[in-house]
Amino acid sequence: MPRIHGPCARGTKQHVVDTGPYRLVRHPGYTGSLLTWTGLALASRITSFSPWSPRCWAGFHHRITAEQQQLQRDLPCYLAHSQHTKKLIPFVW
Question: Per the confidence metrics, is the pTM higher than 0.90?
C-alpha cells in the first residue's frame, strides 16, 4: 500500500497551543474533518459511503499517532498538555 502522506511538518519555533479549541482537544482540525465525513456518510443514506467512515477514522488515528510521537519527542511540554486534553472528542477520547 503506498504512503498517502508525508512526514509531519516541523518548524524550528514550534510551541504547544492550549487556547481556543486546543484547550479541549489536541487535534480540532481532525475532529471537524471526521465529523464532516461521518455526517456525510449518515446523511447520504447511500450505502457506498458507510464503509468509508471507519476507514477515515482509522486513517486519522494512524496520522494522529505519528504526529503525537513526533511532538512528544520534539516538544518537552507536549506530554503535560496531552495528559489534560483529549485527542479528538472533548471529555471522552
Answer: no
